[in-house]
Amino acid sequence: MSANKEVAIIGAGPAGLITGSVLKKTDFTVTLFEQRDCLGGSWAIQPLSTLVDIRDGVFGIYSPTYPSLRCNLPKQVMPLPDFPFPDDYPLYARHDDVLSHLHRFAEHQKLLRHIRFNHRFLALDASSTTSPGKRRWQIQTSQGAGEFDAVVFCNSHYSFPKLPDLEPLLPFTGRLEHSFSYRGPEAYRHKRVALMGSGPSGEDLSREISHCASRVYLCAHPGSRQLHRPVTGRYGAHNNLTRHRDVVACNDRTVMLEDGEKLENIDVLILCTGFQPDPAFRHALPDTGLSGDQNTIAPLYLNLFHPKYPELTATSMIQCAAPFILYRYQAEAIAGYLKGKIQLPNAQQRQFAAEQSELRQTGRVDFSIRKANSMEHINRLASMAGIPPPTKETLEILAANNKKRLEHPDTYRDLPWVNG
């Protein structure tokens, strides 16, 4: 496939903007379809007028960002192509700083006129105008349809809540929430709150909620705490936060844990169980579905290209410690393939490789393995695209940041930076 082709990009968040800038620079005609009236994706906060019980659904909620959110990565490892964060930004930027930077990037790259706002993606179909050697795809959105030579899905795996099996939790008579709709600690003042899951959301939210709640319980399986130093006893803003084993069931306002412990009189149970792609997206790509770990779409060749139709791609479908860096390398690989500079294996080989990759990534994979896999993935894309891989300094900053988060989980964003 050569240049001067029309490419649809679904989503105008960081991945969509980065992909759009790379493809536009490579002389493709790009159109970005954004379901909201603003760019920025999950970085564009969406105020909610009411508290949301997950049992009522989350339709119409598009962002998990809350007012106090700050990056958990230094700005040096969140670069946009040839457009670094300003020097006067804090090392760990606030969500509104990131959003402002994305706006400036879109203006600088002259992308705004290519974005179709309030166009929610609905469906993807092979075009009736497809002919031998010239396959086209029809995009259906809430505002109409269009035909394109290639489609890039950039609506991330942060766009929809990932839920555990809800059946054992449904008897809970308190409010059952997901971190996706969390908007601040004041809603939990004087409440007894349990959180399920101790990834980044569980760790950050439990600490913030402890400023207002009367009691906070952070519950998770032991293997989920690899990025955090073990804590015993009480901690938190008012010495009112403790760690416990994972939630297995609820009855009335009692939360039952896997070791037999029971948490009584719980007012709110918040599921901090991660995110997954939007259902509309995950049903769109032919012969794909949710990965075994329910986090991404699979099978995809190199976690990026559709095995049978490689002009259909999906970014961010691998868990990575440096997503902005990942988006850039994926965009360069997509541009190289569409321009005809990158040759992929045949369809059968792509399918086999995609299925093998999915098997390796399924289940509870150690964090160090996921980290190594993501960097190996980026290095391979860099080699394919003929561009340098991430620098040694970038890798050192990522390693130093992980160490800093482990040693100082409450204050690492405000401590002076020491690399090493």
How does this structure look, described?
It is built from eight helices and 20 strands. Strands 3-2-1-7-20 form a five-stranded parallel β-sheet, with helices on one face. The chain has a five-stranded parallel β-sheet with strand order 9-16-10-11-12, with helices on one face. The chain has a three-stranded antiparallel β-sheet with strand order 4-5-6, with no helix packed on it. The protein has two domains: 6-160 and 275-406, FAD/NAD(P)-binding domain (3-Layer(bba) Sandwich); 167-268, 3-Layer(bba) Sandwich (FAD/NAD(P)-binding domain), CATH 3.50.50.60. It is an alpha/beta fold. Belongs to the FMO family. This is NAD(P)-binding domain-containing protein. Keywords: FAD, Flavoprotein, NADP, Oxidoreductase.
Give a nutshell description of this structure.
With 420 residues, the protein is an alpha/beta fold. Helix content is 25%, strand content 18%. The strands form six sheets. A five-stranded parallel sheet has the order 3-2-1-7-20, with helices on one face. Strands 9-16-10-11-12 form a five-stranded parallel sheet, covered by helices on one side.
Name some characteristics of this structure:
420 residues, alpha/beta, FAD/NAD(P)-binding domain, 2 domains, five-stranded parallel sheet, FMO-like, flavoprotein
Shape: globular
CATH architectural category of the largest domain: 3-Layer(bba) Sandwich
CATH superfamily of the largest domain: FAD/NAD(P)-binding domain
**Over the alpha carbons, how many angstroms does the gyration radius reach?**
22 Å
Helix vs. strand class: alpha/beta
Strand content: 15-25%
Low-confidence region ranges? none
Helix segment count?
8
Helix percentage: 25-40%
Mean pLDDT: 92
Which fold name is given in CATH as the topology of the largest domain?
A: FAD/NAD(P)-binding domain
Tell me the name of the CATH class of the largest domain: Alpha Beta
Q: Please state how the strands of the largest beta sheet are arranged side by side.
A: 3-2-1-7-20
Number of strands: 20
* Distance between the first and last residues' Cα: 45 Å
Order of helices and strands: EHEHEEEEEEEEHEEEEEEEHEEEHHHH
Oligomeric description of these chains = single chain
Instruction: Tell me the count of domains.
Output: 2
